[in-house]
Amino acid sequence: MSQTQISQRAADRLARSTPPGIARKVRGLSDKAIAWLFIAPTIVLLLAINVFPLIWTVYLSFTDYRANRLNRAVEWVGLRNYERVLTDADIWHNMLVTAHFLFWTMFFQVLIGFALAWLINKNFRGHGVWTTIILLPMMLSPAVVGNFWTFLYQPQIGLFNYVISFFTGADPSSFQMIGSVNLAPWAIVIVDTWMWTPYTMLICLAGLRSIPDYIYEAAEVDRAGPFRTFWSITLPMVMPFLMLAVLFRSIENFKMFDLVVELTSGGPGSVTELASINLKREAFEKWRTGLSSAFAIILFVTVFGAANIYVKALNTVKSR
Amino acid sequence: MNGYRKTWAAVLCGTMLGGFASTSAQAEDITLCWAAWDPANALVELSKDFTAETGIGMKFEFVPWPNFADRMLNELNSGGKLCDLLIGDSQWIGGGAENGHYVKLNDFFEAEGISMDDFAPATVYAYSTWPKGTPNYWALPAMGDANAWFYRKDWFSKPEIQEAFKAEYGRDLAPPQTQRELMEIAKFFQGREIDGQTRYGINIFTERGSEGITMGATGALYAWGFKYENTPGKYDMEGAVNSPEAVEALEFYKELYKCCTAPGYTDSYMQESLDSFKSGQVAMAMNWFAFFPGLYKDEQVGGDKIGFFVNPKQNVEASTLGGQGISVISYSEKKDEALKYIKWFAQPAVQAKWWSLGGYSAHNSVLNDPGFKDSQPFAADFLKAMGAVQDFWQEPAYAELLLAMQKRLHDYIVADQGTAQEALDKLIEDWTETFEDEGKL
Asked: Are B15 and B7 within 8 A, CB to CB?
């Protein structure tokens, strides 16, 4: 007996055992209805865990609700929470700290990531091993990286201070990377750059490897120099990849929390208190749920708006 | 019923019976939640007697201090059933009572003959009552504690050190009697070579994330006579929180941090204080009494090498209160067993053993025992400290009030932003906003 005959008999048996009512209903379903039937669980899940909380957060942002006072009457406060967030000098300070962190991490990660990708793309001997080594920081947990770097930055025993001391001759305990108001914002930039440059490198490497060799060969025939080749071929063709890397990393770093909390807890004072750290404090330590909802919505709109503008720019670059 | 079905029925019955049996065994276990620190280990040891006496098993959920408040307050706010008993911080009592997290214990105390008069008044006030000072009890004082100091007795007693100190300050080097003396000693040790190594003056709390810098700086503020309100219960903070004395105390704490701490201690709390002392970096350090038994036993820096002293006064005698009361969680399904534990824990004999194991009993029978002061080298200081303790706000909005103070103090002391006056003025603004939100102003 062939395999097809067995399958046919099994299908016939299944069809016979299906109650007539159900069979009639299933037979009557259109392709579109069956498609909806399949995606319905996903949509329900999406609505339940994404859309509903978002709508609920918007609602809460107009109230004085506190999640730790369930018995307390909830009052509608209109736009007061938004007004408080937007006029709070401390929150604006958080936004500035976030902007500093975002700009410099992106700057260094793109610069170093691209340079590393450029080197790795040369396919020198042992480049595979180097690629693996370079990727290691990215594979670590942010909590581990944060803890690890607090030791490296320790002024008395930290390796980082000794390395700087070796090159500059300064006393290792004469400066504190995470205890100094001036250096702490750079300390978090360095760690994030160390951890996430490999990610940018990977994306750049994909971009570099996607450039067909014949373009370079044509440039060589046209006697284009290395600078000209880089400027007119490599950079424009890698640009969409680079922009994509910047988009992903910017969104991630805008909501950066764990790494910086482990490193500095937002200190000294509030010089490394990113918006996300303050948001967490407002929401889950002070329990100002209404106000923190407004804060979260403002952050969401900021990221969403900026990301949309950026994606439009990205599409323009790609279409060139 | 055929054999196949019989077998399945037997398996099913067995599973169900096993399930019931296991449920009934688990019903006898209760979970106690606390911070992960030395006294918690002593409590595990002590609680074995409770299990032996009652047959009720004890499980423990200990959370490291930096995450303790976050973890436990989230647990309470979500109505979690993880903890049947909670040894919660003194400042949580207002929220625990008003938000319905803790079981009110008055009827239970009355029925079981447990009298709050048997416990040190300062601990009953701080750990048990809400509203403050009223006979409404939400916890039994479990662990008396205050912030105090320890120092390198062996360094202090070195003749060359003694001589150098006397030459510089014109008095003998001894544990400080005032906050100003504390700073002088710290300055004296800062950067000094002892046994071939550079040492530093002092370790003080500077931690930003939880409560560290507030608990440290209030040690100076209280000693200068700091008050939260002009009239207790009126929330009239102007002139109290930012009084000239408070400004002076805050400037003092900042100077102490700048002049005399070891490099890198910008986010220092309990563990960092212990580390800096045990590694021989500092001559003096602040920490809670709870750690003193462990420090005294330490092979490197304990025994004859360590001495203890209570928070020095400046204008008044005062220490920052630590410690906790033990409460029954209202969401627990094993309240009866939890109450049995409290009844057992309140017995004088158990309290005496608690102290002997390294816990700090607040029971009068222990504290008033003639031999108590000499029972440990820090026991007399503990008694003295507990006689003049002050605590942070214990309001339901305590976390909000604490975070504001953490920010303002860290901004001023560690991050060098603004003046002490500005920091305290801003703190009043923050606290006023909170009390307005709470409907108390």
From this structure: no
Q: What would the DSSP string read from start to end of B160-228?
A: HHHHHHHHHHSS---S-SBHHHHHHHHHHHTT-EETTEE-EEEE-----SSSHHHHHHHHHHHHTT--S
Q: Do domains B3-145+322-390 and B147-320+397-437 have the same CATH topology?
A: yes
CA distance B5 to A239: 69
- Residues on chain B touching A67 (C-beta within 8 angstroms): 77
Residue B239 CB neighbour total at 10 angstroms? 13
Per DSSP bridges, beta strands B85-89 and B324-328 are antiparallel
Query: How near does any CA of chain B get to the CA of A106, in Å?
Result: 26
Q: How many residues does chain B have?
A: 441
B3-145+322-390 domain in CATH 3.40.190.10? Answer: yes
Q: Counting one residue from A and one from B, how many pairs have CB atoms under 8 Å apart?
A: 88
How far apart are the CA of A190 and the nearest CA of chain B, in angstroms? 18
CA distance A98 to chain B (A): 18
Structural domain boundaries in chain A: 20-60, 82-319
The answer regarding whether domain B147-320+397-437 maps to CATH 3.30.1390.20 reads no
Per-residue pLDDT at B21 exceeds 50? no
**Chain A residues in contact with B410 (beta carbon < 8 A):** 267-270
Bridge-based pairing of strands B324-328 and B140-143 is: antiparallel
> How many Å from the N-terminal Cα to the C-terminal Cα in chain A?
61
Reply yes or no on whether the pLDDT at A154 is more than 70.
Answer: yes
**Nearest Cα to Cα of residue B253 among B313, B205, B318:** B205
Query: What are the φ/ψ torsions at residue B320 (nearest 5 degrees)?
Result: -75, 130
Can you give the residue ranges of every domain in chain B? 3-145+322-390, 147-320+397-437
Tens-place pLDDT, residues B325-381: 999 999 999 999 999 999 999 999 999 999 999 999 999 999 999 999 999 999 999
CB atoms within 10 A of CB B178: 13
How high is the ipTM of this complex?
A: 0.77
pLDDT in tens, B194-211: 999 999 999 999 999 889
**Mutate which: B208, B330, B398, vs A, most A CBs within 10 A:** B208
For domain A82-319, the CATH architecture is Orthogonal Bundle (1.10)
pLDDT at B386 over 70: yes
- CA B173 – CA B175 distance, rounded (Å): 7
Amino acid B157 reads S
CB contact under 8 A, A267 and B400: no
User: 3-class DSSP state for residue B100?
Assistant: coil
